[in-house]
Every structure is written in C-alpha cells, then in structure tokens.
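SAMPLE LOG
Freezer: B-3
Tube label: C17
Construct: single chain, 273 aa
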Amino acid sequence: MSKIKEAFKNGKAFIPFITGGDPDLETTKKLIIEMQNAGADIIEVGIPFSDPIAEGQVIQKSDLRALEAGCTTDKLMDALIEIKDRIHIPLVFMTYINVIYKYGKKKFMDRCNECGICGIIVPDCPYEEKNELLPECTEAGIELISMIAPTSHDRIKMIAKEAQGFLYCVSSLGVTGVRKEIKTDINGMIELVKEVSDVPCAVGFGISTPRCMQICRRSNCRKCHCKNSCRTWKRQCTICFTVCKRNERGCKKIELINRIRCQKARSLLYGLI
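STRUCTURE (predicted):
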C-alpha cells in the first residue's frame, strides 16, 4: 500500500493546503510541522507560480507574496529536505506543468524523492495528457494524482480506473476559494468512482469549514425511511461510516442513532484541500 493510500486507512483523511514560501520559507517549515502535529493526514504544498490558473484570489495573492519573498522551486525543496526527518505523513506538491517542464521532468521527480514528496497534483495536465508526466513519476515512485470535476461525466469512471494515490474531486466549477454554498452532487460523483475503483476520494475547491464538508458529504442516513415496505437493506453513512440496516420496525431508531453519530462526525473532514 502506498503511503498516500495508507493515510486513508481509517476511511477519511484531512488534507490541508499551504503555499510554500508564504510569507517565507522558515514560516512554511514551522507551519507544516504544526499542521502535522494538529492532525493533518496529508499536506498539500503549493509551489508558487506566476500564472496559477486554477486558483482564486486568496492563493493567487499567496503565490505573489511567496515569489516576492524570493521563493523558488529549488529553495522550497531545500526547505522541505531540512524538515524531512520530522515529517511522517505524506506531502503532495500542487503545481503546474510549466514549472515541471522548466525544471526538467526527471530532475523534478528525483528532487521530489529527496524532499519527501509522495505525489503531485497538476491541474493543467488532464487525464488525456498524463503520459507527459507518468513515465517519470512511475520511475521515481511519485504518484500522479488525477482530478475529476462536475463536468467530467462519462470520463469519471475512465479516470478513476487508473487513478493513483487518491482522486481529487473538484467540488464546483471555477477556481479555488471560499464559497457560500456547494450545489454539486458530490455523492453522485463518488458513487461513479466506487463502481470501478477503491481509490480514496478527496473533495477540494472551496472546502473551508466543517459546514462545507457537511454539504459535500451529506449523510445518506436520512434515506433510511421504510416507505411502507418491509424490505431489508444496508447503506453506509458517508460521513460516520455506520452501516444502516433498514427494516419495517427498526429503521427509525437506527436512523436516529446514525444522525447523532453524524453530528459528531461533521467536524471530521473527509478530504479537505
């Protein structure tokens, strides 16, 4: 089992994001260590870039601060090497394909190994073009993390079948940043994935509070009503992972128990990026 998949061994993983070098590299090192100590299962480290097309204003400004402070890809990697022995959870780079091409694909992956990076997320490298990076990733043992979006439709199963590490599920159209509401059928996307793969799914873009996670991973326990039928079936709550056993006499009681458990689970984010 890969180190990234192992992070999901309890069924859920907390994956916070940080821009490397903002406000400076010394602070970045301290924050990564503290994020780990605070319970992060995986940390996504953004390599600052001048044209971050997938990012909203918050991360765009963060990238600019890091670049103005003198952060480069090499300097960020050197900083991660300095704390490598103190980090026991997976680190994942979020970057753009221009950065990798400019650096050199093989050299980039080799350096990822040196600084403890287990996977990379490249938003502007779609599934159809992943072979631009996959050979170098495979040779270096770096997992190339795929992304699916609400517009992926029939491509979801195709992408999921070959996904590595975890599957990045984009919560909504547009760029990263805080959202007041998320209307995407996240459960529907994940159900399509699970039909063809057991790869862990992590929800990203706009996930900033436990409330956002509640919206994205709305409990299926509320679907446990009998509807005047005595059929029995099982359904797993998507937040607290309790199995609901529905039958004519017992479903309302079990539904209540699951709702209570889900209340406690709402603050445990299934995949926060």
